[in-house]
Amino acid sequence: MKFTLSSAAAAVAALASLTGASPTASPLEKRAGMYDGYKVYQLDVGSDAAKYDAVTAAINQMPSAVSLACDDRHDHIDVAVSPDSVATLEALGVEMKLINEDLGRDIRAEGETKPYVRTIKKRDEAAPLPDMSYFDSYHVLEEHFAFLEDLQAAFPDNSETFVAGKSLEGRDIMGIHLWGKAGKGKNEAVVWHGTVHAREWITAPTVEYMAYKLVSGYLKSKCSVNILDQYDFYIIPVVNPDGFVYTHTTNRLWRKNRQVRTGASCVGTDVNRNWPNQWDIPGGSSTNSCSETYRGEAPGDTPENKVLVDQLMAVNAAQGVKFYVDWHSYSQLILLPYGYSCTAVAEGLERQMELAGGVAAAIKATNGLDFVYGPTCTTIYQTAGGSNDWVADVLGSELPWAFEMRPQGAAEGGFVISPDNIVPSGEEIWAGMKDLFKNW
């Protein structure tokens, strides 16, 4: 059965009715109620690529199944299904393991998004840094913007906020630019993008935590001074604002943007399969609009990708982009180019591997988590139209990377982890970044 836009809307409405969600329910109750009773299974497909593709295609046709696909190895598939769809999943004939009894329960455990209490500037005093309590909770889009504005106000001579462009639905794609004693735009650039996949909530606050550390440490930490005095930072915590808002208001597990295409069965394009480089490599993305890795109709045809390409091209022309990271969750991975080919060797790969090994060791020394590192294709699987491949080939950046943050798997929560993970995630990734800049 084709899952059409109208049937999707009807299914969501019916599910809300069944779970007791009402128009007056809190945002948390709406998000959680949609998945009350949903069970998460891990399907074992081994090393059979054809089997993986066939099972994924079958899941895409199940109205009440949600793929929890992330950039993990292709030996298994994590999927959430409603109780009445378990039999349909079992009929696929794949070995299954139950790893979560109730996804709605875990979404509730994330808690309500708490209001961000903005810092107040006193007359004739410098604006204070944002309060660290910001990292005690997840936040809606507007509060991410407010945090960046407050961070900039606390560092007025060495920073500015910027809007790289607009999303499909007209929302700002907002970031912060930080620099050191050389002055604005005088050094090579580091560019960090987060939350291209909307449901990966841990990424934005982790990236913001590192921005906070760069600013707060500038006058008191030799490491932070050295980093900002060597590189300009352009940091966009949420590059897919439409999808991100949708995860707060409607569907906590939404991944793609919110693009509606004429003749398409489903909404949304995976912006990280839409980059105009090696876009149509067979097996690296999907031509099915209902797939979580749907690549779009043409390379670079999402509004969000156009904004990101323009931003990177402009920064590269003016300063050069030396280090790029596309921040994701989950799986605990450090991914180097290439994703589109398992035989192509990226320039400087041996040195990249050395640096990535140091980053992984620093992360492990912080909170004990193991991060696997290596070229995307050989470490996980083939991808096409990805960001770091584009940065490698088009910009020629020295370090064009992607990260998959905590946790390791869906059994540990996957995309839905409590906010008490935010600070530990920030600590471990920041430790990895400090090691990188120290040894690079």
TrEMBL record:
Family: Belongs to the peptidase M14 family.
Biological process per Gene Ontology, one example term: proteolysis
Coiled-coil features, chain-numbered ranges: none
Lineage of the species this protein comes from: Eukaryota, Fungi, Dikarya, Ascomycota, Pezizomycotina
Organism: Pyricularia oryzae (strain 70-15 / ATCC MYA-4617 / FGSC 8958)
PROSITE patterns: CARBOXYPEPT_ZN_2, PEPTIDASE_M14
Pfam families xrefs: Peptidase_M14 (PF00246)
PANTHER family: PROTEASE FAMILY M14 CARBOXYPEPTIDASE A,B, SLL0236 PROTEIN
Active site, UniProt feature: 404 (proton donor/acceptor)
CDD domains with a match to the protein in the record: M14_CP_A-B_like
Protein keywords: Carboxypeptidase, Hydrolase, Metal-binding, Metalloprotease, Protease, Signal, Zinc
SMART domains on file: Zn_pept (SM00631)
Cofactor(s) recorded in Swiss-Prot or TrEMBL: Zn(2+)
Residue ranges constituting the Peptidase M14 domain according to the UniProt record: 137-440
Domain of life: Eukaryota
Secretion signal, residue range per the UniProt entry: 1-21
Record-given protein name: Carboxypeptidase A2
The keyword ATP-binding is annotated on this UniProt entry: no
GO MF: metallocarboxypeptidase activity; zinc ion binding
